[in-house]
Every structure is written in structure tokens, then in C-alpha cells.
Amino acid sequence: RESKTQSATALMAAVDHNQTQAVAALATCGAQLDYESEQGQTALIRAALAGHVSVISSLVKSGAVVDIQATDAYKTALIMAAEAQVVPSVVALLRCGAQISMETKSGLTPLISAAALGKAQSVEVLLKMGANPVYETKDGKTAAIEAVRMRQRASLLALYTHGAADQVDYE
């Protein structure tokens, strides 16, 4: 059983130590790129949370699924990076093809999740890279509504600056 500081696989150990060449070599040798640890993390999620941009690129080029959702929370690497405000990872994942408005099984998008948590830098980057500020999920969530609900003023300001001002109904 892995501890919170222990790597589950050789690939994850290489990711944790930002060893891009080792990641590429392990991928070439058939490492399971999308294996999920007991903590619900894939190698890509670990790289994203650590800000290991070159490892993110190497994993995706080697075939890791960029928008895979972790089993426990249904979050993608992009959502987790946005929530943790690891801006270089957010940018790297988007450049590697992560879907900016992908709605997870739990009804989250990267923008909605970052806005609800008050991660204004992530909100800003997502908007600058093309996130729709007025996107509405199947269950009616928008980033602005979630920012208001969670009292996240900085997120709301960023959203308003990018055109979400008319999306909040104060009934």
C-alpha cells in the first residue's frame, strides 16, 4: 500500500522527481501511462500538481489521456491544476490539447471549479486561453454563479472583466 509521499509506480517516481527522460523511457517500455494510484492520481495529474511542464508534455506525447477523469472525484489534470493554481501546468495542459470547457461527470469545468475556489489567477489564464465566461453546465452552473455562491470576489471580478456580468440573477 502506498503512502502519501510514496510513488505507486516507477513512472510516478520519475514524474515526482521531474525526470522527463526517465518518463519518456518508461513510456517507450510500456509503462501504464493512465494508471491511477490509491489516492486517485494518474502520472499526468501528479505532474500537473507539481508544475512539471516538460513531464506533462512528455506524458501526453507518449499517449497519456489528457482529459482522463480521476475515479474518486471525477476531476481532470486541468481541473486539479486550476484548483491548485498551478498556472504553468494549466497552460501546458491546454497546449497539449486539454478541453478547456470539458464538463466532468460531477458537473465541473476547469473555470467553474477555479472560480468557486477563488483561484483568480487560474480564472484569468483560463479566460485568456479561451474559456467561455458564460458557459452553463447541464445542471445550470456557471462560473459567475459559483463565484457568487462561494463569495469569491477576485474570481467574480475576473469573470466580469471577461463578459460574465449579466449571468448572475439576484432574485
Give descriptors for this structure.
mainly alpha; 171 residues; single chain; 10 helices
Chain-averaged pLDDT: 93
CATH superfamily of the largest domain: Ankyrin repeat-containing domain
- Helix segment tally: 10
Order of helices and strands: HHHHHHHHHH
Report the β-strand fraction as a percent range.
under 5%
Q: Number of folding domains?
A: 2
Unreliable segments of 5+ consecutive residues: none
Integer-rounded radius of gyration: 17 Å
Question: Mind explaining what this structure looks like?
Answer:
InterPro entries: Ankyrin_rpt, Ankyrin_rpt-contain_sf. One of its GO terms (biological process) is protein K6-linked ubiquitination. The protein is an all-alpha fold and 171 residues long. It folds into two domains: 93 residues, Alpha Horseshoe (Serine Threonine Protein Phosphatase 5, Tetratricopeptide repeat), CATH 1.25.40.20; 66 residues, Serine Threonine Protein Phosphatase 5, Tetratricopeptide repeat (Alpha Horseshoe). The chain has ten helices and no strands. α4 runs parallel beside α6. It is elongated. The chain starts with 9 loop residues before the first helix and ends in a 10-residue tail after the last helix. 43% of the residues are buried.
